[in-house]
Design brief:
The complex is a heterodimer of chains A (435) and B (480). Chain A is an alpha/beta fold. Chain A is 23% helix and 39% strand. The longest helix of chain A has 18 residues, at 415-432. In chain B, helix 7 (154-160) crosses helix 8 (162-168), helix 10 (427-435) crosses helix 11 (440-451) and helix 11 packs across helix 13 (461-475). Classes of the chains: A alpha/beta (435), B alpha/beta (480).
């Protein structure tokens, strides 16, 4: 670690504390503790096992200051919206709530969709849940707790089902290097069923650091479908942590779709905290240029009869790089666990690079665990077959690449999101492979 | 001096008392490590100046290194200052007949099907005329030298073939490689050296059974094996019989050099003392093994790891030449409190290089094991191909099995496949075998042998039979 990182983010922290004197005491305490943690931990370097393939030089070299609120128009947002008739939409620009861009039709009873800043005083559940799940031992999580300005708070009461996806947009638009820390808390009460999409969107060309943390809690017998869409700019470093906590017989399906960012690191940490908990964690990386995407996934089976499933795929072109590290932990006593993990990588260029580390860590015998990882190029026989059917080389390759990526997309069980992603991919692959 | 020796003895031996002699050899250096000790070791072995310098460079580098701690098995701190880095080859304690040998040991020999003569030799019974090691050695050497094969102890090689040793020593595992390899480079005691001339197919399996200098090679063994262009050699290390050794830390280095079109097959069966049921004592086996394959060459590792308290090794292949091939077949069995962190590294540098990894891990009791492997495809390794399978079998609810494969692909034409699974023996399988009249123990042993078949079939025939029995013996009492 260089000397400049010693007081990294001190400015941001001081500025933020000055700007928010009205915060309740419990939050100030949380922030103080978290920042202390961050100071002690410092930024990880490639010497840390979990960061060996992702270099944070671009982050540690800048003295980031917090981004201020900026006004943007609905027109600017348009390409990033998910067309849906009765959509529920929350928008944050540079980490500040942008009410004029939101859409909140009358919500079903028991559903709360609010910016965290508005319910800090009134919602006791928030106080009990916020920052209680995500591990503060991760420097970026600690940093987010210390620095977050605002974010979405979504709470579903017991027994309700909301089929309309709740779309949370975190937009960043900056003219000079700045840091943005959005925070999300999704809480599904017993036997509830909700769908949430988080979009991270970048406008403007200046460098920025987006450090996001989402805590996703599924109480007994509930179900959450979650999608994280990364559409940051080529000047953005994105670090994200999704903490997922699944209770008895509940299920969480989470997708991370990485389309844009200069450097992105996504951590998904799922704890199957009770018997019969299930989770499906999928991811897709479409890399080009010099993009660097790093997905780290940990599934922690703590009690018996849990089930987890992972499918991560990456398509890397040009000089882009994809990193995947998945870990399945089966704790002593978590018998009857069924855990699968699959990572497939497609390299389209000789300068692209793929690093993958699928791990199993198993401490009990009555389990069914397996993982697989592959890396390679398109099957020449498949290309040949399509050509023999009259497709030209480029169309054949595009079609196969699309199909490879679509295997992940088709698992998304929110129709509007899936359709939009298929459109985006169709556009992308028309030009991806060049002539 | 005697007091120090006792403490080391206590450290190394702990529970295990068989076969230890407390005779202090006159020809022994004091414990601890310094430049003087390194020089003294070198001087005692009459080594040339360049080798002394090489050892010293390694020692100086070692001082700057810190002991790695990323591995899964944790161990008590090793007190490097208390180790005696040189003692002249000790005489094994001799007894006059097999009746005096520990009956438990004999029983194991019986189960493994080791011949009576062999049993005597292994347990240190004074050898008779029939099994005269000298005569065996002589006929053996004659046959090899007819073909121009050099097979001798490392010290002899330094004296007789300095040009070969100088050229290849450290060419695969440099003295700066890692903490234990560097330590080995500074203080290595002895080991084997083998050179197969161009185009020669070694007529027999070179084996430690016939090793010219097998006594007291000890703790810091160094093996250098060179197969010149188009040569072939199959080398066996270790044996299935229980190896009772007084040293706790084993930091060996094995370097394989396969020149153009050469083929080296290196098989290991390791059955060092694993410590008692509660994990007291036992050998720390921290080994660095690596093979360098030139154009069209092939390096193949096969290992059966059943002993040691902690096994920590990654036999690797550097596939430098185009079309070179690397293979790794491994069976690791841990029980009681044994721990193993083992796997391989396949570094694909040349074009059209291929590698296969088959790893089978069996964990019983409180055993804990980790497969850790790296498949790295360099950008210019066009057409590289890797296939890996790592399966783990868990026996008992207290054991652990972990899989940590690293895959780094930097070439779009490379194809890499990795799969791993973890499961226990199903009750149906056991039930089926039991209703066919097998005891539960035999049933488990049969299933485990089936599980390991892909690896065992890579071993030379006699070895494979013994290894199979060994797994059975090792599993005794671990099931139920």
């Amino acid at each position: 670690m260089t000397a400049t990182t010693e007081n990294l983010f001190e400015h941001a922290y001081t500025a933020l504390r000055k700007a928010q004197p009205q915060e309740p005491g419990w939050l100030s305490e949380l922030r103080e503790e978290a920042f202390e943690n961050f100071r002690a931990l410092g930024l990880p370097t490639i010497k840390h096992e979990e960061w060996r393939w992702t270099n944070l030089k671009s982050i540690s070299g800048t003295d980031w200051s917090p981004a201020g609120p900026v006004h943007i128009t609905e027109e600017q947002l348009k390409p990033y919206l998910i067309p849906n008739d009765d959509e529920i939409r929350l928008v944050f620009v540079n980490g500040h709530f942008a009410e004029q861009l939101c859409k909140r039709p009358p919500l079903p009873e028991g559903l709360i969709v609010e910016p965290i800043s508005r319910v800090l005083d009134s919602d006791e559940a928030l106080q009990l849940k916020l920052a209680r799940y995500a591990e503060q031992t991760n420097p970026f999580t600690a940093l987010n707790t210390a620095l977050f300005t605002d974010g979405a708070y979504i709470r579903a009461g017991n027994g309700i089902t909301v089929e309309t996806p709740i779309h949370v947009l975190y937009v960043s638009t900056v003219d000079e290097p700045a840091e943005i820390s959005p925070r999300t808390l999704i809480f599904a009460g017993e036997s509830s069923d909700i769908r949430v999409v988080e979009s991270y969107v970048g406008l403007g060309t200046a460098a920025r650091l987006v450090n996001a943390v989402s805590e996703i809690v599924a109480k007994g017998n509930s179900h959450i479908r979650h999608v994280k869409l990364l559409r940051e700019t080529d000047a953005t470093a994105h670090v994200g942590w999704n903490e997922i906590n699944v209770e008895r017989d509940a299920g969480v399906t989470a997708h991370s779709i990485c389309l844009g960012a200069a450097l992105a690191r996504n951590d998904v940490h799922a704890v199957l905290a009770a018997e019969g908990a299930e989770c499906t964690l999928n991811g897709l990386v479409l890399g080009r240029g010099t993009q660097h995407f790093d997905n780290h996934v940990v599934v922690d089976h703590r009690l018996p009869h849990g089930r987890s499933d992972q499918l991560y795929r990456a398509v890397v072109d040009d000089k882009s790089r994809s990193v995947f590290a998945g870990k399945v932990i089966v704790r002593p006593g978590a018998s009857g666990t069924d855990a699968q993990q699959q990572n497939n990588n497609l390299l389209l260029s000789d300068n692209a690079k793929v690093d993958t580390k699928p791990q199993l860590e198993i401490y009990t015998d009555d389990v069914k665990c397996s993982h697989g990882a592959t890396s390679g190029q398109l099957d020449p026989n498949a290309v040949f077959f399509l050509r023999s059917r009259g497709l030209d080389e480029r169309a054949a390759r595009n079609l196969l690449t699309f199909a490879f990526a679509n295997d992940v997309i088709e698992h998304i069980k929110i129709d509007a999101v899936r359709n939009r992603l298929e459109e985006i991919m169709a556009e992308r692959f028309a030009g991806l492979l060049g002539g | 001096m005697a007091e120090q020796n006792e403490s080391i003895q206590a450290l190394a031996e702990q529970e295990y008392k068989h076969g230890w002699t407390s005779n202090v050899d006159a020809d022994q250096l004091p414990p601890g490590l310094s430049e003087d000790i390194v020089r003294a070791i070198s001087a005692k072995k009459n080594e040339p100046e360049w080798l002394t310098e090489w050892r010293l460079r390694a020692y100086r580098h070692w001082l700057k290194m810190t002991e790695p701690d990323w591995q899964k098995p944790k161990h008590a701190k090793i007190e490097y200052d208390k180790i005696i880095y040189y003692s002249a080859p000790k005489k094994k304690p001799t007894v006059s007949s097999l009746d005096e040998v520990d009956p438990e040991l004999l029983e194991t020999f019986e189960k493994l099907g080791i011949s009576l003569d062999e049993q005597k030799r292994l347990s240190g019974v004074a050898v008779d005329a029939v099994f005269d090691s000298v005569s065996v050695k002589t006929t053996f050497r004659e046959e090899l030298s007819k073909q121009g094969i050099v097979f001798c102890s490392f010290s002899e090689a330094v004296a007789d073939h300095p040009e070969l040793v100088k050229k290849y020593l450290g060419s695969v595992v440099p003295y700066t490689d890692n903490y234990f390899a560097t330590l080995n480079s500074a203080v290595f005691s002895d080991g084997s050296f083998c050179y197969i001339p161009p185009g020669v197919r070694c007529p027999m399996e070179l084996s430690t059974y016939f090793r010219i200098n097998s006594a007291g090679t000890g703790q810091f063994e160094r093996t250098l094996l060179i197969a010149d262009e188009g040569a072939y050699v199959s080398y066996l290390e270790g044996c299935t019989a229980p190896q009772r050794d007084e040293n706790q830390l084993h930091a060996a280095v094995v370097e394989l050099v396969a020149l153009k079109g050469a083929h080296i097959k290196y098989s290991t069966v390791q059955n060092w003392y694993p410590g008692d049921k509660d994990g007291k004592g036992g050998v720390y086996n921290f080994v660095t093994k690596r093979g360098m394959a030139s154009e069209n060459a092939k390096v193949s590792w096969t290992q059966v790891e059943t002993g040691s308290a902690i096994t920590w090794k990654y036999p690797s292949c550097v596939l430098k030449g185009d079309n070179s091939v690397g293979e790794f077949y491994s069976v690791a069995l841990t029980r009681d409190c044994q721990m193993a962190d083992t796997g391989t590294k396949m570094i694909h540098i040349g074009k059209n290089t291929r590698s296969t990894i088959i790893s089978k891990g069996i964990s019983a009791g409180r055993g804990d094991q980790t497969y850790r492997g790296l498949v790295q495809i360099m950008p210019r390794a066009t057409g590289a191909r890797n296939y890996s399978v790592c399966d783990s079998l868990l026996l008992g609810s207290q054991c652990g099995a972990h899989t940590v494969p690293y895959i780094e692909s930097g070439n779009s034409s490379a194809v890499i496949e990795h799969e791993a699974s973890t499961s226990k023996i199903s009750d149906e399988q056991i039930f089926f075998l039991r209703q066919r009249g097998l005891s539960e123990e035999d049933a488990v042993s049969m299933i485990v042998n089936g599980f390991c078949k892909d690896v065992l079939s890579e071993l030379p025939m006699e070895f494979a039979v013994e290894a199979q029995k060994l797994l059975g013996v090792k599993l005794e009492g671990a099931v139920g």
